[in-house]
């Protein structure tokens, strides 16, 4: 790649694209419109993007549809369930409260994007409100919404994401145990890890 092929200015970048359509501008709001709330309530999966001292991070979050709760038209509550205890996203929020969420809804082409500022709460009432089967989240990420808009379906259509969902595990993709055995130089027993993983995941979902 030569320097002459690099885009380095906003003017060069703008020259690559057409004018933004009216619909792409009108769909953006600074609050949780009822139509956008309906999408959040139907979504069982979201990606949380954060920024910290070591750079950017994107973390998958999932639960029953509506697991991210609207406290009001300007606030979302994201429970922090059991996971790998790396807490990358939480540490990043302490460093930089700016976050972004991408909501996906199986079978729907449109996705929903939410940008805002986050804080971390262990308020007992919140923990109790977002408990599942009597098990409270470790904490709750409260997101003050600043920007909300839906993303058109082109990415989902091109990827055929939902059509591929029922095809089972793709051939040639290594298991978690296989990856861990390789990266740990066999210090982790990959076969044992894979054999125990389903039961461990069932027992530690919440």
From TrEMBL:
It holds the Pfam family PNPOx_N. Transmembrane segments: none annotated. It comes from the Bacteria. Residues 33-152 form the Pyridoxamine 5'-phosphate oxidase N-terminal domain. This is Pyridoxamine 5'-phosphate oxidase family protein. It comes from Undibacterium hunanense.
């Amino acid at each position: 790649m030569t320097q002459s092929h690099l885009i380095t200015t906003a003017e060069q970048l703008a020259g690559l694209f057409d004018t933004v359509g009216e619909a792409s501008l009108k769909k953006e709001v600074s609050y949780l419109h009822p139509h956008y709330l309906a999408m959040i309530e139907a979504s069982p999966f979201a990606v949380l993007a954060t920024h910290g001292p070591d750079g950017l991070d994107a973390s998958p979050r999932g639960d029953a549809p509506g697991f991210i709760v609207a406290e009001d038209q300007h606030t979302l509550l994201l429970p922090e369930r059991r996971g790998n205890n790396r807490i990358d996203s939480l540490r990043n929020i302490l460093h930089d409260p700016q976050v972004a969420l991408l909501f996906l809804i199986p079978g729907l082409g449109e996705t929903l994007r939410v940008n805002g500022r986050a804080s971390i709460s262990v308020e007992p009432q919140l923990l109790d409100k977002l408990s599942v089967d009597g098990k409270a989240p470790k904490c709750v990420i409260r997101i003050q919404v600043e920007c909300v808009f839906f993303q058109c379906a082109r990415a989902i259509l091109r990827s055929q994401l939902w059509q591929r969902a029922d095809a089972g595990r793709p051939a040639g993709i290594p298991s978690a145990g296989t990856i861990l055995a390789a990266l740990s130089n066999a210090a982790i027993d990959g076969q044992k890890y894979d054999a125990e993983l389903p039961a461990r995941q069932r027992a530690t979902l919440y």
